[in-house]
Amino acid sequence: MIGKLTGRLDYRAEDHVLIDVRGVGYIVYCSSRTMMALPGVGEAVSLYTAMLVREDLLQLFGFTTLVEKEWHRLLTSVQGVGAKASMAILGTLGPDAVGRAIALGDWASVKAAKGIGPKTAQRIVLDLKDKAPSVMAMGGTISEAMEGPDLEVVESSEAAPKPKPKKKTSKPNTDAAAQAGALSALSNLGYSPSDAAAAVAKAAGNEAGLGEAGLIRAALKLLAPKG
């Protein structure tokens, strides 16, 4: 199983790229959001990957973060949701917004993705709501794939020289890290994972850019007994 590819971006199409890994080219399909985040042709690129295996088909799908890859895995585990539908959802919402929508039971946001009907959107929210907290908690351990070629997963049998692309520095996903920290704090206070995830998701949606402490305070206000 190919879990990550690092090499040179040789070609860009509307929904996929060709990545040269030491002389071997891999076609990788990506969401529209991921495509916009990729570098130009000839530059270094690194993507986490998932492989679709069928009797008559082998396809690789690429993601810039492990959270995005995990949401793809979970989305495609829902009945009636294939890889194309998952890419549409992730391209429309992005992994963080997918987590918020599912944690809040907001199937209308999921339905906004092309090709996703109301019944499918409702099934996604129902099937994945209990799993949203654990994926949202991954935010604190995300490492951006664009940091540079630190791992060659697949190598060519030919003795081709290893490319030395210019490394890119990346900023940590501070919003995801803050949400992960807030989730952990609320869990330590005794709140259930689903209640904590819903409160953190709502707090993050109400006010962008809140740090961990701000998210905790806002979520506690939402969780406080009414009346």
Contiguous helical run count: 10
The share of residues in extended strands comes to 15-25%
- Please give the share of residues in helix: 40-55%
The major β-sheet equals: 5 strands, mixed, barrel
By CATH's scheme, which homologous superfamily of the domain at 1-64 and 145-171 applies? Nucleic acid-binding proteins
User: What is the succession of H and E elements?
Assistant: EEEHEEHHHHHHHHH
Question: In a few lines, what is going on in this structure?
Answer:
The protein has 10 helices and 5 strands.
Q: Describe it for me?
A:
GO terms for molecular function: ATP binding; four-way junction DNA binding; four-way junction helicase activity. Residues 174-227 are annotated as: Domain III. Residues 182-224 form the Holliday junction DNA helicase RuvA C-terminal domain. Pfam families: HHH_5 (PF14520), RuvA_C (PF07499), RuvA_N (PF01330). This protein is 43% helix and 17% strand. Among the domains are: 1-64 and 145-171, OB fold (Dihydrolipoamide Acetyltransferase, E2P) (Beta Barrel), CATH 2.40.50; 172-223, Helicase, Ruva Protein, domain 3, CATH 1.10.8. It has helices at 32-37, 66-75, 83-93, 95-103, 107-111, 118-128, 132-136, 174-188, 193-206, 212-223, and strands at residues 4-12, 16-21, 24-29, 44-54, 57-63. It is globular and about 60 Å long. It has ten helices and five strands.
